[in-house]
From TrEMBL, chains A, B, C, D:
SUPFAM superfamilies found in the cross-reference section: Glyceraldehyde-3-phosphate dehydrogenase-like, C-terminal domain, NAD(P)-binding Rossmann-fold domains
Organism lineage string: Bacteria, Pseudomonadati, Pseudomonadota, Alphaproteobacteria, Hyphomicrobiales
Listed name of the protein: Gfo/Idh/MocA family oxidoreductase
Organism: Sinorhizobium garamanticum
Record-annotated Gfo/Idh/MocA-like oxidoreductase N-terminal domain positions: 2-121
Domain Gfo/Idh/MocA-like oxidoreductase C-terminal intervals: 134-336
Length: 345, 345, 345, 345
C-alpha cells in the first residue's frame, strides 16, 4: 500500500483525490490546502482522510510515501523539491515548473534519491492518444506534419499566457506521440488586454527531418475546437477530442510518387504526384478515465521502481519548449534553438 | 456593349466564358488558347464566338474592348501588359503576377492609359465575404484576430508553392475585409516531396495595431477545411465556406473588462476579465454566383470609368505578401517587412 | 424547511439526493432502498442523512414532509399511494405509473388530500425546452408539426419497451411545449430479440388541428441522435440536445401563400407557394441544472400550496399515451383514440 | 450504335441529354418538347441534334431505337405505351406511372414485344447505394430495420404529395438494397396548405420477417436531411448523402445475446443482452456520375437483350407502394396490404 497526500484542492485536486481514493494499491492519507473552506469540503466528502494546511506536516508524516502536487504552477518547484528531499515520490501537475532550470533540478533531485517523479500529462493516458502513438509507430509511414488547434472562450489567466495554459497539452501529447523531438521553436501571438499575457498564440516546431509541427491556441474564440491532424506518407489521422465517440479517424489517403521522374522542359526531374483515396476508419478506443490509468501506473512505478510514461524528463522537455516559445513570442517569432532537447533522455 | 475576349480556356476560363456570355452589357467576341482541342470545345458550345490561337489577333481586333486573362500565372504579366498597351481593359486571374515588380508595372501601365485593371479575386464577390466586410465595418468592434484554415488533399502544383495556390484566396479576402493592412509577414512551411515547392505553410501577418492574422494552408490534409475565425471586441465571426447554408455565424460572445483595475499583490494593475455569452445568428446571405456579380461590375467599371473592388492595387498588395511570405519561408520564418504596403492606395 | 426522503438509490436516486442536498428550503432527512450496499454508499457520502430499508419507517417519520420516488416504474403506484395516504407530498419518477388507471388514482388521491404530486419530467426544466415553449407561444405562428428522433445503442430493458423508456421524454416535452393535446395515437415497432419488448418504435400523434406529431425511438442505432424539429407557419425550430452550446436553432424560414389563388387548368383554386429564407439564430440558453430548478420548484409548490409545472395530470397524460401507443403497436398501428385527454386538466 | 430520343426537356431532361451525348454506344438523335423555347436551348447547345415538338415524329423516326421519357409523371403511361407499341425501347423517369395499373400494363407491353423497359431510379447507380447493397448481402447479418429521413424546404408540388416526390427515392433504394419485399404499408401525413396534397408524411413498411422500414419525408423542414440508418444483427450502416466524402459509415456495433437464457423470477427465459462496440469505417466509394453509369447500362441491355437493374417490375413495385401509401394516408394510417408484391418478379 502506497500512502499518498494530495497538495492543493482547487480545480484539479478533487480529481486526484477522487481517483486516488479508488486506485488499488494507493491509500489516500491526507489532503493539504491553505484554504480552510477547501479542507472542510474534503472532510465532508472523505471523512476518513486527514486534512491539514501545513505542508511540513505532510512531509513529516511517515504514512505518506508519495505527494501529488496540484497547486498553481509557480509553487511546483518549491513544493516538489521539499517533498523529494523528504524522501517522497512526486506526481506534479503540468506544467511541471515555471522554468526549465527548475524542472531540471527536480529531475536531478529525483534521480539522485531514486524517487519516482511523474508529471500529470493526463492526455497521454487517454485511449485516443495511446491509439495515435500506436498508429504513428506502425501505420502512418513517415510523419510529415502535426497540426493542432485548441481554442475556446476563456478562462483567461493573469500570470501565464495561453501557451502555458493550453499549448502545454499539445506539447505533452506530441512528446508522447511523435518519433522525433523538436530542435527549435518559434511563436507569434498577441495580448488583447493591456497588461495581460498573450491570449492567442501560434507555435512552430522545427525538427531535423521534414517533420513540421504547429499549434494554435486561443482563449478568445467563439467556438471550442480540439482538433489535431497528423499527416504521414502512408496514412493520416484526424483527432477530434470533442467527438463523443469517433475521436480518432484514420484516412488511407495521401500522395503517391512516380519512381521514374520525368524530364520536363528546363526542370530535369519532376516527380509525378498521384493521389490515393481509400477507406477511412475510426478505431474503437479504450474509454477508461485517463487519470485513473495514470494514477495506477504511478503507484505501480513506485512499487516496481520503474519510470512512468510521463516522467520528469518529459515534463522538462515540455517546459523547455514553453519557455522558448514565450521568448520567441516576445521577439515576433524569432527562432529559438532547443539545443539540449536531444540530450534529455 | 463591351466586347470581351477570354484568353486561356483551361480550368477557370470556361467559367469566365459562361459568365461573360450571360453578362448584360458584355459581348463575348473571342476565346484564345494555344491548344486546338480546347478551342474545338469552345466552338461546339459557343458557335457564335470566334476562336483563335493567336493572341496578337485578339489585340488587333477592334471589337475587343477588354481582355480577360486566365492563363498560368507566369504569363499574366506579359499578356496583360500587351493588352494594356493595345488599349484594352484587363481582368486578370489571381495571383495577378509572379512578382510584385510585375504587378506594380501593370498598375502603372493601366493608370497611365486610364484603363480598368481588375483582378479576379472571386471570393470578395460572394455573399459571405461581403457580409463579413459589413460586420467588420459595423458590429465586431476592434478586430483582434483573423485566423484562416484552408486545407485539403491535392492538387499539387509544380511551379508554385501552396502559398501561391491557396493562401492567395485568404489574402484577397483579408485585403477586402480587414480595416488595416499588414506591415510585415512571416511564414514557415515544408516540402515533403523532393524538388517540389512547399505543400504546407503557415503565415503570420503583423499589423500596427493589436490585430494579428494567421493563415494555414495545406495540400496534404485528409479532410477539406475552409474555416475562418474573426475575433472582435464586441462580436466574433465563424465563416465556414463548406457549410451548405449557414456559412457565416456571428457570435455575441467575448470578454468584458472591469474598468476599475485591482491591486493584486505585486502586480499593481490587473483587469478583471468577465465573459459575455449571448445569442448566435447566421445572417441570410446573397447566393448569386460571385463570378457573375464580378463580371457585371467589371463591365460597369469600364462603362463608367470607375475602379473595381479588386483593382490592380489590391492584386499588387496580395502579390507583395505572397512574395514576402515565400522569402520568409525559405528563411525559417524570418519576419519580412512590407514597407510600401501602406502606400499602395 | 421541507423534510424530504428519497426512496430508491439506483440510477437516478443519487441525482435526486445530490440536488435535494443543495436545494434551499429542503432538508434531506433519509434515503430508503432495499439494497444494503446502496445504503452504505449513501452513508459514506452523506453521513448526516438517515438510511433505512423500511419504507414504512419513512412514512412514520414526522420529519418527512415529502417523498421522492425513484424506484422501478412498476412500484411507483404502490409507494406513491402509501406516501399520499400518510400525508406526504410526492415527487415521482417518470413514467409516473404503469397504467393510466394507476396514474388517475394517484392524481385523485393527491387532490383529495390537497398534497402536491409532481412528476419528474426533468427535460421541461432545461433551458432549451423552456425556450422552445416560449417560442411556440410567441414566434412560431401556427404549429404544423413536431418531429422527434431519440435513438442510440442500448440500454435494453426487459420489462418495458423502448416507448416507455425513450418516448416518455418526448411525450413529456411535447405535453409542455405544444399548445394542443393529442386526440389519438398510433404506433408501429418491432422486437428483434425473441421474448423481449419492442426495441424500435414509431409513434404518430393526431390532433384536432392540422398539427401532426411523430416520435422515433430506437435502442439499436449505431449513432446517438437527439433531434427535434418543430415547424410553424412563421418560424421553425431545430432542437439538438447533443449540441454542446447551440441546442436550439430558430430558422426564419417557411412558405408564403399568395392570397389571390390562380385558376390553373382543371384545378380551379391553386395557391401560389413562395419560399421565405431569412436568418437563423441560436438564442443563449439558461444552463442551470434542470433537476436543481425542478426540486426548488417542488419545494416552493409545497410551501405555497401551488401546482408544479409537471403535475400529476401531466404525468397521467403521458402515461395514457404510452399505454395507448403500446396497444397500437401490438395491432400494427391501429389508431387508438385518447378520449379523455382533453378532460385531464 | 443505339439511336436515342429524349422526350421532355424540363428539369431532368437536360441531364439525360448531356449524359446520352457522352454515352459510348448511344447516338442522341432528337429531343422532343412542346415548348419552343426549351427546344431553342437544345439547338444552341447541341446543334447536331434534331428538335421537334411532335412526339409522333419521334415514333416514326427509324433512327430512333430507344426513347427516354422525362415529362411530368401523368404523361409517362401514354407516351411510354406509344413508344413501346412503335417498337422502341423505353427509359422512363420515376415514378414510372401514375397508378400501378398503368405500370403493370407498361411491363406487360414491353415483355410482349421483348423490349427493354428501364426506370430511371438514379440512386441505385450511385457508389453509395451499390455499396449498401453489397454490405446488406454480405456483412450486415439479419437486417433489422431500414430508416430514412429525406426532408428540406420546398419544392412544393401541386399535383402529387411529398410521398410521390421524395419517398419515391427511398422506395427505389430499398427495392434495390433490401433482401425482402414489403407485404403491407401504412402512412400518415398532413397537408398544411388548403387544397394541396400532403407536404409531410411518414411511411411504415411491413415485411414477413422482423424487418421493419420507415420513411420520413417533408417539404417544410428548416434544414436539409438525407440520412438512412440500416440496422443489422452484425453491423449497422449510416448513409448520409449530404456528406461530401464519407457518405457511408459502417459500424461494428450491436447487441450480443447470451445463448444460455436465465430463469428470472416469473419470466422463465430471459436473454442476456450485451453490447458490442467495435470500429467504424467509411469505405471508399465510386464517385462516377450515377446517371452516366445508368445510361451505359441501358444501352448495354438493349444491345445484349438483357434486363436492367431498375426494370419495369422495379418501377411497378415502387408505384404500387406509393399508391397504397397514398390510400393509407387518406385513412389515418390504415394498413394496406401489398398482395401481389411478391409475384412481381
Amino acid at each position: 500500500m502506497i500512502g499518498v497526500a494530495v497538495v492543493g484542492y482547487g480545480y484539479w485536486g478533487p480529481n486526484l483525490v477522487r481517483n486516488f481514493w479508488e486506485t488499488p494499491g494507493a491509500r489516500l492519507v491526507s489532503v493539504c490546502d491553505l484554504r480552510k473552506e477547501r479542507l472542510a469540503t474534503v472532510q465532508t466528502r472523505y471523512p476518513a482522510v486527514d486534512i491539514t494546511d501545513d505542508f511540513e506536516e505532510v512531509l513529516r508524516d511517515p504514512r505518506v510515501d508519495a505527494v501529488a502536487i496540484a497547486t498553481p504552477a509557480a509553487a511546483h518547484f518549491k513544493l516538489a523539491m521539499k517533498a523529494l528531499m523528504a524522501g517522497k515520490h512526486v506526481l506534479v501537475e503540468k506544467p511541471m515548473a515555471a522554468t526549465s532550470d527548475e524542472a531540471r533540478r527536480m529531475v536531478e533531485e529525483a534521480a539522485r534519491r531514486r524517487l519516482v517523479l511523474a508529471v500529470d500529462h493526463t492526455f497521454v493516458h487517454t485511449g485516443a492518444v495511446r491509439k495515435m502513438r500506436e498508429l504513428v509507430e506502425d501505420g502512418l509511414g513517415d510523419v510529415y506534419y502535426y497540426d493542432s488547434v485548441r481554442v475556446n472562450l476563456g478562462l483567461f489567466q493573469h500570470d501565464v499566457s495561453v501557451i502555458w495554459d493550453l499549448a502545454v497539452h499539445d506539447l505533452s501529447i506530441m512528446d508522447y506521440v511523435l518519433p522525433e523531438r523538436p530542435v527549435a521553436v518559434s511563436a507569434t501571438g498577441m495580448s488583447h488586454i493591456a497588461g495581460e499575457p498573450a491570449n492567442i498564440a501560434y507555435l512552430n516546431l522545427f525538427f531535423e527531418s521534414k517533420l513540421i509541427a504547429h499549434i494554435h491556441v486561443n482563449w478568445l474564440a467563439p467556438v471550442k475546437v480540439r482538433r489535431t491532424l497528423i499527416g504521414g506518407s502512408s496514412k493520416m489521422i484526424l483527432y477530434d477530442d470533442l467527438e463523443p465517440s469517433e475521436k480518432i479517424k484514420v484516412y488511407d489517403k495521401g500522395i503517391t510518387l512516380n519512381g521514374n521522374p520525368q524530364k520536363n522542359g528546363e526542370k530535369v526531374y519532376q516527380m509525378l504526384v498521384g493521389y490515393r483515396t481509400g477507406d477511412m476508419y475510426a478505431p474503437h478506443l479504450d474509454v477508461a478515465e485517463a487519470l485513473g490509468i495514470e494514477l495506477r501506473q504511478f503507484i505501480d512505478c513506485i512499487e516496481r521502481n520503474e519510470n512512468p510514461v510521463a516522467d520528469g524528463n518529459a515534463g522538462l522537455r515540455v517546459v523547455r519548449i514553453l519557455e522558448a516559445a514565450t521568448q520567441s513570442l516576445a521577439e515576433r517569432g524569432r527562432v529559438v534553438e532547443l539545443e539540449h532537447m536531444r540530450r534529455i533522455a
